[in-house]
Amino acid sequence: MLMLLLGTTLLFGCALPRETTPISRSGFYFDTVITITVYDEKDLKSLDTCFALADRYEHLFSTKIPESDIAKINDADGAPVETDPETISLVQTALSYAALSNGVFDPTIGALSSLWDFQAEEPALPDPADIEAALTTVDYREVNVDETAGTIQLTRPGARLDLGGIAKGYIADRMKDALIEAGVTSAIINLGGNVVVLGEKPDGGAYKVGIQYPFQPEGTAIETLEIKDESLVSSGCYERYMTIDGVRYHHILDTQTGYPVESGLLGVTILSDRSVDGDALSTICYAIGLENGMALVESLSDTEAVFIKEDETLVSSSGLSL
Length: 322
Prior knowledge:
T-fold, 7 helices
């Protein structure tokens, strides 16, 4: 049995035949450990291709690399910036989910998200005045994408893009495309909370994917799902957080208040064909809560979800049996 733990590690159980022994390689991009697993030595070259893609996309989408497309857009003081076509594609996808969620998911959250440092040695809350000021810069409707000119422009003063809520899904999808083009038929792509499986296991079985048990030791599953040729993405308050004066503050921010979302949930896992969709939807569904999130998932084709409530009970969409 092979089981993946979303956002954690790959666990290999009973041995596969020698010719299908898993071969994995890892790298660190977007502050995330990326691990890709194939099952045939002839597929090793495809791993080079995937990590070259990771490097390329980090240099397009990162807010921390000064020469990236996103950094250039953020530093352009409202001027249009010529960008790579893939940057335009990803920003358009992000804007479509912003519109779908009425701004609950908003790629112009960059000025706000930069105020929250969840990796600080001495955690501290942002100044409320800084949060209020940053909120005035958040409005996805003031992003101008000109496909003909190949440019992206932020028309609201102070606005900054942050694609952290969707970029990993896009990258995982492009890696899967690259593996398919290389003739790979079985593989696992793991970008932290984004897991994409290509095809089925070499023995013809499904992959078992474990959903991380919130606030339990890494590798502890609260539930497992069997999937073939699909994506699973999890978002929750247990992924990145800090505790100050006994209060836990997590990284999924409310675009109306500027503070972490309070939705009555610990986490949401989305099962979908495309990881980019699961990336955005897991954040949206976590933010809008169980009732509204479930209604959204049920309205979408080829999409399922598992919601983890604050009492650690699970609620799944109609297409799943837990």
